[in-house]
């Protein structure tokens, strides 16, 4: 029996009646954009994260772009982030005309190495995008302390981390602003694209709401040049249903990660590292192996899907060649890109399936 990296159909079947009814309610209302489902979801996400406000947008990439724009970041500015993340974390910096500046990662957690962070701050640095990779939070309070000394903004890129915690505080609750992605494969995933920005700054939230809707506070009255980045009602309704299950699903992922930790303890792979102060949500369970390609082929032959996150670090992407980085500049991130492999880890995964996966890894 084949085992997918993520089984969205199995998840859907567990909540089918609620999802179907939510979709039908939107169809019956005939309100499809900027309606009550979106507005209620904003309030529910803010309450979940422990922030004063939340602003729904079309996707996680837009969430970052609009946040950078709202902070006034543009040409001549620098924004610090990690080279070991999805392209959008740095692409968005370039999209607003600023320059991405990278900091190598911690070899255990694969998050940004905070011991190296302050050395990268210059007079041109205007913000730090702190990425919580694979669902494990960074120490954002420490980043905020560093940022305060230099009067710069902090943005949590929590695209992979909704529900994760650090010292009991949820992802998104600490920085000046935080962004989420609701791409279908995320722990809280829509059935299409979606994103959210959370913040405790009410003025920033007002600015973001204008930016997402063509610079309008009032329809047809444009105070500034904005964008068209709105979360539609169908996705908001689906997300509202799924939000009710999020903590249960995240706990299911942690339980399956614990099983892997036990069954793979004597295997010739490196298990995911964990900050003891963090409560991860295991958006991905990522092994590391010097024989990754062989392991990947073995899993494939046994009917098990796996995936490389990420094959090329951002500083070596062709799109960033003008930044002048070279192989060896961020050795920990480069090694992670050569070794990291995600295996199935989701609430619907059975113990028998996990044993099947482990047997192939240990083969």
List keywords for this structure.
363 residues, alpha/beta, Aspartate Aminotransferase, domain 2, Aspartate Aminotransferase, domain 1, 2 domains, 3-stranded antiparallel β-sheet, 12 helices, globular
Quick one: CATH superfamily of the largest domain?
Answer: Type I PLP-dependent aspartate aminotransferase-like (Major domain)
Radius of gyration: 20 Å
The proportion of strand residues reads 5-15%
Q: Compute the separation of the termini in Å.
A: 18 Å
In order across it, which strands form the biggest sheet?
Answer: 1-9-8-5-4-2-3
Given helix and strand content, the structural type is alpha/beta
What's the CATH class label of the largest domain? Alpha Beta
Estimate the mean pLDDT confidence.
97
Bulk shape: globular
Helix content: 25-40%
Identify low-pLDDT runs: none
Continuous helix count: 12
Order of helices and strands: HHHEHEHEEHEEEEEHEEHHEEHHEH
The CATH level-2 architecture of the largest domain is identified as 3-Layer(aba) Sandwich
Q: How many domains make up the 3D coordinates?
A: 2
What is the fold named in CATH at topology level of the largest domain? Aspartate Aminotransferase, domain 2
How is the biggest beta sheet arranged? 7 strands, mixed
Give the tally of β-strands: 14
